[in-house]
UniProtKB/TrEMBL annotation:
Pfam families: LysE
Stretches that traverse the bilayer: 41-61, 73-90, 139-164, 176-194
Keywords: Cell membrane, Membrane, Transmembrane, Transmembrane helix
Annotated membrane topology: Multi-pass membrane protein
Gene Ontology CC annotation, any one: plasma membrane
One GO MF term: amino acid transmembrane transporter activity
Protein localization: Cell membrane
Name assigned to this protein: Cysteine/O-acetylserine efflux protein
Organism: Pseudodesulfovibrio profundus
Keyword Cell membrane assigned: yes
């Protein structure tokens, strides 16, 4: 049992902490708006991911595997949404202040996970590894561990973004940062799209 829990934790940490569209959006948002204003996005992304994981584990995966075209459509829609978010970040005004309202809140974090090809692949892989056919106990344990680890991992990305704010002292530096983060986000979406098709 201990080895299974360890494997669940390692898998969750690896998938949550590794760079991806959600993590890059969190860094960009936190650098622009600060940790506190980015935290609703972190919460939405974490809760959205766990609900996706539970939904797939409780039966949605059977529908997805029965209709492979659905997964391809979700990958296309997700990549398009992530590229849109990347464009919004890259083209954001370089004079953002902490007093502005973030463009990425709870709803955006939640939606981004449901349209994120990396999230779908992580959920499907995790369910394949840790779920059992006749009982929901492993799925519940895995989801609970993943919730804690995902929340902590995304919060770390938000803290890193907030630390970057100290270096973004001029509009030109902010503009360069926005373009770099937006471009990385678009590249992530393109890569995930290519690997999921």
């Amino acid at each position: 049992m201990v080895s299974l829990l360890t494997a669940m934790c390692v898998f969750s940490l690896t998938m949550s902490i590794s760079p991806g569209p959600v993590n890059m959006t969190i860094v960009a948002s936190s650098a622009a708006y600060g940790f506190r204003r980015t935290f609703p996005f972190v919460s939405g992304a974490t809760i959205g991911f766990i609900l996706l994981l539970l939904s797939l584990g409780l039966g949605l995966m059977q529908i997805v595997t029965a209709y492979p075209a659905l997964l391809k459509f979700l990958s296309l829609a997700g990549a398009a949404f992530i590229i849109y978010v990347g464009y919004k970040i890259a083209s954001a005004a370089p004079d953002l202040t902490l007093d502005e309202t973030p463009c990425h809140g709870f709803r955006h974090g939640f939606l981004m996970q449901w349209l994120n090809p990396k999230a779908w692949l992580a959920c499907i892989a995790g369910i394949s590894m840790f779920a059992e056919a006749n009982t929901y106990t492993p799925l519940v344990i895995f989801s609970a561990l993943y919730f804690i680890i995902c929340y902590a991992s995304l919060a770390v990305w938000a803290m890193m973004g907030a630390q970057l704010r100290t270096f973004l002292t001029t509009p030109s530096k902010v503009k360069i940062f926005n373009v770099i983060m937006g471009s990385i986000l678009c590249a992530c979406a393109a890569y995930l799209l290519l690997t999921s098709l």
